[in-house]
Amino acid sequence: DFWKDVEQKTGISVNYNERVDAIQPVADGSGFTVTTTGGAYNARTVLLAIGRRGSPRQLGVPGEELAKVSYRLIDPEQYRNQKVLVVGGGDSALEAATSIAEEPGTTVTLSYRSGSFNRAKQKNRDKVDAAVAAKRLRVLFDSNVQAIHDDAVDIKVGEKTGRLKNDAIIISA
Fold first, then answer.
1. How far apart (Å, rounded) are the C-alpha atoms in residues 25 and 15?
2. What DSSP state is assigned to residue 44?
3. CA–CA separation, 170 vs 112, rounded Å?
4. What DSSP designation does 151 have?
5. For residue range 105-155, what is the model confidence (pLDDT) as tens digits?
6. Do residues 90 and 97 touch, judged by C-beta distance below 8 A?
7. Residue 120: exposure state from Cβ atoms within 10 A (0-12, 13-18, ≥19)
8. Band of pLDDT at residue 21, cut at 50, 70 and 90
């Protein structure tokens, strides 16, 4: 209701149920062409508001409802002296993993379903590499959480499934 009221008061035009497929700069530098499932639009300015904090992407695995599961990092210090699994391969996952890994006594594992961090910024990939080299962070590529338990997770890495002891999970998928 709040946003509907904003639309009415400001006269802003909102096209619902259209996925943005591409945003291309116009050759003369005057703006952008935004291509969606509903058509193409010309815009002088584009604001990307891609946050998903209200409806985080879940893994859909047993145990995901446990209190130890979180969908964002608030304060790395709260994970001091804990075994933490961070799931995801984007910037927020890499930033969470490297921040927590700096806390004393933490054991941090970063799980990512692909074979490399191609979505993340280079500076975050460099931080991960440094943390791995310093043995503060372990990375499991080609891995998927299968189930979450009170004190562990079942995780498939390649073709093998094993159990990883942990105290907390941050899902940034």
1. 21
2. S
3. 12
4. S
5. 999 999 999 999 988 999 999 999 999 999 999 999 999 999 999 999 999
6. no
7. buried
8. confident
Distance CA 153, CA 136 (A): 20
Q: Which amino acid is at 164?
A: L
DSSP letter at 58 equals P
Where do we find the tokens 């009415």? 8
Which two tokens mark 107? 């054991």
Q: How many residues does the chain have?
A: 173
Name the token pair of 100.
Answer: 């927590």
HSE-CB at 106 with a 13 A cutoff on CA atoms is: 26
Residue 109: name the closest of 101, 121, 118, 117 by CA: 101
Antiparallel, parallel or unpaired: β 69-70 and 168-171: parallel
Question: Which amino acid, one-letter code, is at 128?
Answer: V
